[in-house]
Structure formats: C-alpha cells, structure tokens
Amino acid sequence: MKSLRKYLDRIKPQFEPGGRLHAFQSVFDGFETFLFTPTTTSRSGVNIHDSLDSKRVMIIVVLALVPCLLFGMYNVGYQHWLAIGETQFPFWQLMAYGFLAPQVPPLIPIQTSTDNTNENTASPLQWTGNAIDLVELIYGINEMGCINNGNMPLKQLAPLLYKIFGVESKDCYRFYIDIKRRKNESRTYFLDKMQEKLNEKMLRDEEMERMRR
C-alpha cells in the first residue's frame, strides 16, 4: 500500500488545477479517497469529522446489499423453474434467469370497476391452478381448432379465455416458451395429467357400474 500511496502522490499534481489531466480531478479524487482516508481536516470551527465520509458509507451499503441481490436472483429463478414444473434446478441457470430475464406479469384476478359495472363484470369462474397450466390449455384448444373452426387467432382467443376464467395476462407467449424448454419426453404436463385423471374417473365409474350389477 505504501508503494501505491507514493505512486498516487507522484501523479496527483497532473490532476490538480493547471495539470494536463485536471479535467479528471474528480475521478482521481474519488479513486484516491476510496483507497485511502482523506487527510483534509477542518481549519476552523468545532466540527467533528469521521474518517468514514458519505462515499465510504454508501460503498458499505452497496456491499451489504450484495447478499440480498444474490438471494433475490436465485429465488426468482427458483420460483420460475418451480412454476413451469421442472424437477431439476441448475444453479447458474437460476441465477442467470433471475438477473437477466424480464419479470413475467403474473395472472391476477380481473378487477371490476364500481363506477361501470355493466362493462366490467366479474366472471363466475376463477382459475385457481398455475398460470402456466392455463396457457398450456389455451394453446391446446387453439391447436385443436375447435373454436370457430380454428379461424380465431391465438391473440384473440387467449384474452377471451382469460376473461372466462377470471384472469388476465400480458405475456402468454413467455409461458409458452417455458413450456417448450421442458426436458421431459412429454412437455404438456397439465394436459397429460388431465388425460390421466379423466381415464381414472372412467375406470372408477365402470367399476362402480359392475358392482351394481
């Protein structure tokens, strides 16, 4: 540190008024006072000065917030992977998603206006499953072409189904991208589960019919 101090003292005159690098005096001063405690003291008055100036205090604050930032990045990525039904949680991919990916607007209940109840009426149905499951269902209905003979585009179909189920979303395609990224052989978790549940119900009903006979 002594050699660094000597080096800064040697080049300091170049950054002072009249020096060829005086335009960067504030940059040099900030770097110098970050490394070393300022030697400037008050020559009058009774003010008490601590070695921790405001800049050093804010640096400590930033360093203290780094663990919160890292945990927040991990938690955003983890909750995202959990929502799309993944069972493996790659650490660096979680951190990258939490840091780089834009926040996906969640599906939220439609808020009705008390001033205009005729235009905004609450739906009697309320989707209580995962947001990505609803998007999977919407894309499945769209691909089956069973609405208006398949002539209604997805950008019109999705808002109508959102309204029927009492939810709204701003980024349906983002959820679809997450579905495509799934690693299992079948990526339609919700539709597969629906098929499994329906087949189980039919088997139970057939078994009860045989028991009545």
Keywords, separated by commas or semicolons:
8 helices
Rounded radius of gyration (Å):
31 Å
The helix/strand order is: HHHHEHHEHH
Q: Name the structural class.
A: mainly alpha
**Strand order of the biggest β-sheet:** 1-2
As residue ranges, the low-confidence spans are 112-119
Helix content: 55-70%
- Portion in beta strands: under 5%
Total count of helical runs of at least 4 residues: 8
What's the β-strand tally? 2
- How would you classify the quaternary structure? single chain
Compute the separation of the termini in Å. Answer: 94 Å
Short description:
With about 210 residues, the protein is mainly alpha-helical. The chain has helices spanning about 1-15, 25-35, 55-85, 90-100, 130-145, 155-165, 170-180, 190-210, and strands at about 110, 165-170.
